[in-house]
């Protein structure tokens, strides 16, 4: 028996979710002053750029966007890190005293987020770190929750959620794989 896929957000749904998240980020932070976005490689980076575009459309100001690679911060690869390809962390601005919105595509156990926070703190001390995710699927191993969620999708441990991007790295759909 093959896998059964269900589209839970199409392109329009993804855009709507990101627009809602942008408004929630602006409301919570009272605008974009001292606000920066840091996406987790790879899907989170693409979503951070999309979120930055929406914030700029609404506020008329650009927001800094960075990228963090968490490979060396993961807690499930101790002793194996030398065999993993390491991506590039690119945070081209100071995060000292900034409000950092960490962006990822799917929140699952929370371990990726913990690793990303460790990586960000190695770059400086932000005033706060907030979390924006397109999909929260539950099953936390750590006490981590998202501040901004596009869609909550309770899943079983056997299921998977994938965010698909087009050739221009624009999110086109979110698929639940059973």
Molecular structure report:
Helix 1 packs across helix 2. This protein is α/β, with parallel strands linked by helices and 178 residues long. The longest helix has 19 residues. The chain is globular and about 50 Å long.
Comma- or semicolon-separated keywords:
178 residues; five-stranded parallel sheet; three-stranded antiparallel sheet; 8 strands; globular
Most strands sheet:
5 strands, parallel
Order of helices and strands: EHEHEEHEEEE
* Global shape: globular
Strands in their spatial order, largest beta sheet: 3-2-4-5-6
Gist of the model:
By secondary structure, the protein is of the alpha/beta class. Helices cover 26% and strands 29% of the residues. It contains three helices and eight strands, in the order βαβαββαββββ.
């Amino acid at each position: 028996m093959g896998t059964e896929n269900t589209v839970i957000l199409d392109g329009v749904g993804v855009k709507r979710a990101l627009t809602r998240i942008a408004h929630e980020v602006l409301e919570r932070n009272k605008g974009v002053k001292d606000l920066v976005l840091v996406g987790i490689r790879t899907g989170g980076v693409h979503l951070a750029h999309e979120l930055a575009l929406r914030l700029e459309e609404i506020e008329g100001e650009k927001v800094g966007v960075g990228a963090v690679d968490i490979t060396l911060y993961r807690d499930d690869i101790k002793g194996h890190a030398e065999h993993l390809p390491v991506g590039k962390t690119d945070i081209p601005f100071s995060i000292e005293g900034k409000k950092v919105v960490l962006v990822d595509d799917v929140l699952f156990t929370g371990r990726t987020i913990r690793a990303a926070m460790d990586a960000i703190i190695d770059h400086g001390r932000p005033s706060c770190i907030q979390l924006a995710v397109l999909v929260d699927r539950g099953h936390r191993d750590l006490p981590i929750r998202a501040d901004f969620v596009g869609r909550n999708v309770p899943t079983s441990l056997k299921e998977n959620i994938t965010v698909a991007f087009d050739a221009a790295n624009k999110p086109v759909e979110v698929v639940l794989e059973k």
